[in-house]
Design a protein that fits this description.
The structure holds two protein chains of two kinds.
Chain A lengths: L1 H8 L8 H36 L5 H5 L13 H32 L5 H13 L4 H13 L15 H25 L3 H9 L4 H30 L2 H5 L19 H10 L3 H32 L4
Chain B lengths: L1 H12 L28 E12 L2 E12 L3 E5 L6 H7 L10 E9 L2 E2 L7 H7 E4 L10 H11 L6 H11 L3 H4 L12 H14 L4 E5 L7 H14 L4 E5 L3 H7 L2 E9 L5 E10 H6 L4 H7 L5
Parallel strand pairs in B: 2-10, 3-8, 3-9, 6-7, 7-8
Antiparallel strand pairs in B: 1-2, 1-4, 4-5, 9-10
Helix pairs in contact in B: 4-5, 4-7, 5-7, 7-8
The chains are: A mainly alpha, B alpha/beta.
Chain lengths: 304, 297
């Protein structure tokens, strides 16, 4: 105590000049402003959509089929079901392939080989290819063949073709995220397992993958939430907005982004409101998925 | 043949099944129940071993025999290749694709680097404990049970876990919290868990790579005591930076040194291998004397 007092009385430490303090404050204000701008636009958008859309959210809106003639009775049932189907099918497609590819690249690939480096660079590039390009790819190769999957291609648009196209779109992201999760498992865990006489496969299956499952699950959910928000690829593979029966895997389908796109393009104002309603539903689904991702990460993330 | 039969009978009496899936080329090892072997039976025989990374030798000209039921210490300054050499003994160096081992590493007269040897089978017999405790992110019980499970060992898992934890001098401390996560243990307990985990798969040799360097003196004491207890049934090779530790626990000591070559290249070489007492009191080589008396390193 005595030491501290004497230091103050002798002014060993100089007080900050007022200029330095002002600069510091200005800097903080500038940072806050940037944050505010980012959040403001998002806020305005959400509030605007919610004002129009929320009153529309009734059980009927969710369960009615869309109608061109009676917008007030129109609903989003096929679009909502279509989106849920797309999500499940897409997940079933991307989880095994994405995780297996990530395991290969992290655990088996020798980075000194040129082809492994080529694959790695290409996956990063693929992750930034515009979604409309994937739409074309889906149209040319999945919908119209030659990749005629279990005869479901039929040369006509199907829900399965849509799900596969969305899967291809987000697969690079899933691979990248899974690789990061696998890389986060320390090498000492692998060594410990191998030193006990476990095989490489046993080590990966029983130590590495359980240790990285939280990261992989989070990445997959975030990839899926990107997939179900995509519009362009679905337009190209032939999703339709006004569908009057429930979608089937091997039949035509609708999806929420398509319903929004179509309704927003209609000249009559009632349809604009329908678009707002569908946006609210889509945002709610996305919010739910992202919350699940955050929960999984907090609950199961492995601290090493 | 009779010997093997007698041994199987002994295993059966002890309630231990022979480790399944072992190739015939790796003979089961006679493990005396309590007393150390009278004869100095060589368990490892190294002949002019060299390890190179990307063609650059890291350690070379290593020739010695390791004796069964003894603790052998590897000492020497940093970069002398003692850890590298230790990792040759159970083919952990295979994990580094640039590492290449030449010379002969004979384990019970069998070349561990012969083309028909499966490194997984080698590691079943020759366990390893690492510098930093590396428990799996699972319960204490699951940490021990992992090895026996992946090796398909038969028997009551609860019993296997208890036996291993008792061998690791850990049972009394953890018997009431077997289902809790191993990450909640102290560093010393984690390291003893790793030793117990190694013991659970019933190896013949335990390699320890500076097992106490991350531990406090009390935990270190506990592990040294454990090693002395374990050498009755196992052969142990320990790499250590701590010369007092080598002097306290080991029967034989190998001293490695760094040779400076032209162009600033360095390579580790075995300088002297002798009973520990001799290394620390009357070494043959001046460099050994300089190192153990603290003049360098």
């Amino acid at each position: 105590m005595a030491v501290a007092e004497s230091a103050i009385t002798r002014k060993v430490v100089q007080r900050a000049s007022s200029g330095a303090r002002t600069k510091d404050l200005l800097f903080r204000a500038a940072l806050l402003l940037c944050l505010f701008i980012a959040v403001l636009f998002l806020g305005v958008l959400i509030v605007d959509v919610a004002i129009d859309g929320v009153p529309l959210i009734t059980p009927e809106f969710l369960t009615n089929f869309p109608s061109r003639l009676f917008p007030e009775e129109s609903g989003i049932r096929p679009a909502l079901i279509g989106t849920l189907y797309l999500m499940v099918l897409c997940a079933a497609f991307i989880v095994p392939i994405g995780v297996a590819a990530a395991v290969y690249l992290e655990e088996y690939a020798d980075p000194s080989r040129w082809y492994n480096r080529l694959i790695e660079v290409n996956i990063q590039n693929l992750a930034s290819v515009p979604s409309v390009v994937y739409g074309i790819l889906g149209l040319a190769f999945i919908v119209r063949g030659p990749i005629d999957i279990w005869g479901l291609g039929k040369g006509s648009p199907t829900l399965l073709a849509g799900a596969l196209t969305l899967g291809l779109l987000v697969l690079p992201v899933v691979i990248i995220v899974s690789r990061e999760a696998i890389r986060a498992v320390p090498p000492s865990i692998r060594e410990g397992s191998l030193a006990l006489g476990a095989t490489k496969w046993q080590t990966i299956w029983k130590q590495v993958l359980p240790g990285s499952v939280a990261g992989i699950a989070t990445g997959v959910i975030l990839a899926l939430s990107r997939a179900i928000g995509e519009t362009a690829p679905l337009i190209l593979v032939g999703a339709i907005a006004f569908r009057l029966t429930d979608p089937t895997i091997d039949g035509q389908f609708s999806a929420l982004p398509i319903a929004i796109f179509q309704a927003a393009g209609e000249p009559r104002p009632e349809f604009q409101i329908l678009a707002a309603g569908a946006i609210v539903v889509l945002l709610a689904v996305l919010l739910l998925m992202n919350s699940l991702a955050i929960y999984l990460r907090n609950r199961y993330e492995q601290k090493w | 043949m009779d010997r093997i039969k007698a041994q199987d009978a002994a295993r059966a009496r002890a309630g231990v099944s022979a480790t399944p899936g072992l190739p015939k080329v790796l003979p089961a090892v006679d493990r005396p129940p309590a007393e150390p072997a009278v004869a100095h039976e060589a368990i490892f025989s190294l002949q002019d071993v060299q390890v190179a990374y990307d063609g650059v030798p890291a350690v070379q000209e290593v020739t010695f025999d390791l004796v069964k039921n003894e603790i052998t210490a590897f000492i020497g300054p940093s970069g002398c290749g003692k850890s590298t050499l230790l990792r040759c003994l159970n083919r952990m160096n295979d994990l580094i694709s640039s590492a290449k081992v030449s010379g002969k590493v004979l384990y019970h007269d069998q070349d561990l680097y012969a083309p028909d040897i499966d490194p997984v089978q080698v590691r079943k017999r020759i366990g390893m404990v690492f510098q930093k405790p590396n428990p799996f992110p699972k319960s204490i019980y699951e940490n021990i049970a992992f090895g026996p499970r992946v090796l398909g060992m038969k028997g009551d898992m609860d019993e296997i876990v208890e036996t291993a934890l008792r061998k690791g001098a850990l049972w009394d401390e953890v018997k009431d919290r077997l289902k809790t996560n191993a990450f909640g243990m102290s560093g010393g307990q984690q390291q003893r868990l790793c030793i117990a985990r190694t013991m659970a798969v019933e190896p013949d040799v335990i390699l320890m790579d500076e097992p106490c360097s991350a531990l406090d003196p009390i935990s270190t004491g506990a592990i040294e005591e454990l090693m002395l207890e374990l050498k009755r049934n196992y052969s142990i090779v320990i790499v250590t930076h701590n010369m007092q530790q080598a002097a306290r626990v080991s029967d034989r000591t190998a001293f490695y040194n760094v040779d400076k070559l032209e162009e600033g290249k360095r390579v580790g070489k075995l300088v002297e291998f002798a009973p520990t007492e001799k290394i620390f009191t009357a070494p043959d080589d001046k460099r050994t004397e300089a190192y153990v008396t603290g003049k360098f390193g």
